[in-house]
Amino acid sequence: MKVTYVEVEKMKAELAKPFRVAFGVITSCDTWTVIMHTDEGITGYGSAAPLAFVTGETMETCKIVLDTFAKAFVGQDPTDIEGAHKLMDSIIYANGAAKCAFDLACWDILGKYKNEPVYKLLGAPTNQVVTDYTIGIDAPEAMQKEAHRLVYDKGFDILKVKVGLNLDNDMDAIDRIRKEVGPNVRIRVDANQGYSVESALKALKVFEQYGVDAIEQCRPWWDFDGAAEIHQKNTTSVKLMLDESIHNHYDAERAGKMGCADYFNIKLMKCGGLYDGVKIAQTAQKYGVKCMVGCMQENKISIAAAVALVAAMPAIVEADCDSFMFYKNEDDGVKGGFTREGGKLTLLDKPGLGVEL
Fold first, then answer.
1. Strand partners for 340
2. Which of 328, 326, 207, 308 lies closest to 266, judged by CA?
3. What would the pLDDT profile of 240-264 be if each residue is shown by its tens digit?
4. How far apart are the C-alpha atoms of 247 and 288, rounded to whole Å?
5. Is 162 among the residues known to form the active site?
6. Annotation marks residue 190 as catalytic
7. Catalytic residue status for 332
8. 343 to each of 183, 186, 319, 321, 332, how far by Cα in Å?
C-alpha cells in the first residue's frame, strides 16, 4: 500500500467559555485535520492540536510542517508506522502535534486495512475508559458551581481542578468543591508549572486534608531537580504527576531515574502520537510509575486514539480525555470514535479509529 496524496484542512470550534490555566487562557479549539489517501482506496484521518506554550507550535508553524510531511509521505507505506516516524524525525525535530496527525492517520489506515479497531491493534483488553472532567481557574465560587453541575447534572465522578495562580484561592476553591460534591468524588489538581518547591509542599499538606488524589506539574517543565525534591520531601498521600516535563520516552527515562513523580501524563500532541505514547507507558512501567493520558484543545479524532491508548497499556490507569466536551455544542466536531455516558467512554468496534468527518 502506498500514500497517493494528503489533504490538510482546518477545523475550528468555539469553546462554550474561555478556559483558564496557570500559563494562559484558551478561547477556541483550532486544529488541523490530516486526510491521508492510499492507492488501495483506504483513507486515514489524523488531527493536530498545536499549543504554543506546550508543544512549541502555533497553528501557522504546524501547517508548514504538515505540508512538508504531506509531500514526503507520497509513495510511502502508511502501515509502516515505525518507518513513518523515522521519516518525520529525519525532516524536523519535535513538532509533536504535526507528527501526531500523521501518526494517527497511519494507525487509522492500518486498522481499516486489517479490519480491526485501533484499540485491538494495541492489544487492549477492554473498550471502556472512565475520564475526568476539568474545571478551569475561576473565582472559587464559580468553580464550586461548576463542580456541582458536572457531578449532579452531568454524571462525572472524577474532577480535575486547575490551580497554580494563587495558592490561597486554590485552597479556597478545593475546600468549596469538596464540600459541594461530597467525599466520594475523586479530585486531582493541576498546577501547570505554577508552584515553587515551597508552595507545592505547603499545598500538598492542605490538599491532603480534602482527599485530593494527585497534583500535576508543580514546577516548570525543565526543572527535573525541583520535581525530584518535591517528590522526595512529600510526606502526604497526594501523588505527584509530571505533564509538561514528559514529551517523549527519553524524558520519561530521565524522570524515572531521578525519581521525579508517581505518575506521568502522556499527551499524544506532545509525544507525536500513539507510537511514542506506547514507549512512554512502557518506560513508566519499568520504573514503577503509573500514567494518565491527557489532552489539550483536541477534537474526537485524537481523543479516540487517546482513549484506545488508555485501554491498552497496563501502566495507564487514569484518563483526562475531556477536551471535546468544552465546545459550544457539546460533543460536536467529529462523529464516531466512541460513545459517552457521563464519564464513561466506550470505543466503537469499527475499523481504525472509527471516526467520521
1. 345
2. 308
3. 999 999 999 999 999 999 999 999 9
4. 19
5. yes
6. yes
7. no
8. 18, 12, 10, 9, 16
